[in-house]
Structures are given as structure tokens and as C-alpha cells.
Design a protein that fits this description.
Elements: H1 5-13, H2 35-38, E1 45-50, H3 66-74, E2 79-86, E3 93-95, E4 98-99, E5 106-107, E6 112-113, H4 114-124, E7 133-140, H5 145-159, E8 181-185, H6 192-195, E9 206-210, E10 225-229, H7 234-237, H8 245-249, E11 254-257, H9 264-272, E12 278-280
Helix pairs in contact: 3-4, 4-5
Length: 283
């Protein structure tokens, strides 16, 4: 079979431009200074959110790095995502992109120590704001209890006093979350020590849907929080973004973008959140 030159040409035309590690977007007003947001329930706001926040370049064959985490936090992200695996020999957790498989996981990026990532996030995320920070943990640890306990130990060692321990729902007012880290997950936890601090498994109340779902099809009953993430197609693999505005207009809470990519959709997203990393949903 011959080479697909049209596919190659299309890939070249849409090749991504990645952000400089020193990218900073300042001037966003913290919700502590905005009474309307401070008293709003979580389900009534949109939160500036990052997809695969540890990846600065391509989703595969790239590096998992602190530079990527620095960029997304400095750009204003207050919901970040970490894919977490366990070393099969030591059972120590690490951050990377890949696929959970037996007997061996398929890892498509370099590894970043989970301890190193959490240490950096703890020291950097609240330097200039007290806005809540949501961390979506994609747990690919085969529900191993030892690995799960080690994740919990690392989180408590670095974030213990700031981990949110209340009951989280769409009705939770943002004022209860100020200065706190809120852990979200789709499951795969593996031990009670970690489960005690994770507040969601994706469900009808906290939905997790791909960007291939048409925005008009979003089902958003009262007090529902919807997270939208990039579809795993060629554009997604290239770390390119989808148009976030229709999803925001339809009431999604977390529209997760590849924030290390500088494209037209990321620029529109930054403009949407230009004043604050939290914004009231359209009425």
C-alpha cells in the first residue's frame, strides 16, 4: 500500500504550536474577591480545566514533565488531570500517558514520579491564588491496594491540610472549597485510604464525556457537573484542541483543554476565562 500523502499533508497543516514553559497569564481575579462566585454552587460555574496536564507536547512519544504542569497552572487552570500508573516491580506510582494492560501496561510517554508531581503542584498551585484546585486522577493501577495506599500517602504527605474532606456535590458552594484541593476520579482506586479522599466516580451527577458528543446533546439536570475531554482521534493525539465555546454555552463545568497548545481554540478558551478561572454559566 502506498503512502497516504494527503494524510501527511493534513498533519503538517495542523501541526501544533506548543507553549513556552515560561508562559504566564496573569490578572485573573480570585473567587475570594467575587461574592457572586464565592456563594455559587459548583454546578452553576465553569472551571478553567486542563486535559492530561503533565504533557507539554504530543500525547504519545512525548515527555511527562513539571514544565507542562507549570504552564497549565500559570495559564489559570484550576482543574488538572493526572494519569497514574504503578511500577509493576516496586508498586510506586508514576504519571504518564498510556493504557492499562495485563501483564504489562503500555506507556507512551516518559514517566514522572507521582511524588515529584504532587510536590510541585502543592508548592505552585496556591502561590498567587486561593481558588480551589480540582485534580482528576485517572487511576490505572489495576486497583492494586499497595499502589493505592502509596498514592494516598503521597497526597497526605504534601497536601494533607488542604485536601477537601467534606461531602462534594453540585450544590457545594465554592466558598467551602477555597484554598482546598478536591480529588476527582473515575474509579480504579484500590484501597480505603485513597477512597476516603476521592469525591467522585463519573456518574450521572458528575459526567465525563468526549468532545465527539454534540454540545446540544449534553444532558445537564439540576446540580449536575459535566466534564468534557478531547476525543482520542488524530487531532487529540497531536494535542490539538476542539472548540470549547459551544460546550461552555451549554453548561459544562469542566471543559478540559490541551492547555500547552497555542491554537485558536485555546485562545478562545483563555478569552472566556480572561477575568477569572471560575465563571458563572450562561443563563
Amino acid at each position: 500500500m502506498g503512502a497516504c500523502f494527503s494524510c501527511f499533508d493534513q498533519t503538517v497543516r495542523i501541526a501544533p504550536v506548543f507553549a513556552d514553559p515560561n508562559t504566564i497569564e496573569s490578572g485573573r481575579l480570585p473567587i475570594a474577591n467575587q461574592p457572586l462566585l464565592l456563594n455559587a454552587p459548583l454546578s452553576s460555574v465553569a472551571v478553567m480545566s486542563s486535559h492530561n496536564s503533565y504533557i507539554r507536547t504530543l500525547q504519545h512519544l512525548g515527555a511527562s514533565s513539571i514544565d507542562a504542569l507549570r504552564i497549565v497552572l500559570d495559564r489559570g487552570a484550576r482543574c488538572i488531570e493526572l494519569d497514574v500508573y504503578r511500577d509493576p516491580d516496586t508498586l510506586m506510582p508514576f504519571v504518564a500517558h498510556g493504557k492499562e494492560e495485563l501483564p504489562n501496561d503500555i506507556i507512551t510517554t516518559t514517566r514522572l514520579s507521582f511524588d515529584t508531581a504532587i510536590h510541585f503542584i502543592t508548592s505552585h498551585a496556591f502561590q498567587h491564588t486561593t481558588d480551589p484546585l480540582f485534580i482528576a486522577l485517572e487511576l490505572n493501577i489495576h486497583e492494586n491496594p499497595t499502589a493505592s495506599d502509596r498514592i494516598a500517602e503521597i497526597l497526605h504527605a504534601h497536601m494533607g491540610p488542604i485536601l477537601y474532606t467534606g461531602q462534594l456535590s453540585g450544590t457545594t458552594p465554592l466558598r467551602d472549597l477555597v484554598g482546598k484541593v478536591v480529588l476527582l476520579s473515575g474509579g480504579g482506586i484500590g484501597s480505603p485510604s485513597l477512597e476516603r479522599n476521592v469525591h467522585t466516580q463519573w456518574s450521572m451527577t458528575f459526567q465525563n464525556i468526549p468532545s465527539s458528543v454534540p454540545p446540544d446533546a449534553l444532558q445537564s439536570p439540576a446540580y449536575t457537573c459535566i466534564r468534557v475531554y478531547p476525543e482520542g482521534n488524530i487531532q487529540g493525539a497531536l494535542s490539538l484542541n476542539f472548540n470549547p465555546i459551544p460546550f461552555l454555552q451549554r453548561g459544562a463545568t469542566f471543559v478540559a483543554m490541551n492547555m500547552c497548545t497555542d491554537d485558536e481554540h485555546m485562545r478562545a478558551y483563555s478569552a472566556w476565562f480572561a477575568q477569572s478561572s471560575f465563571r458563572m454559566k450562561p443563563t
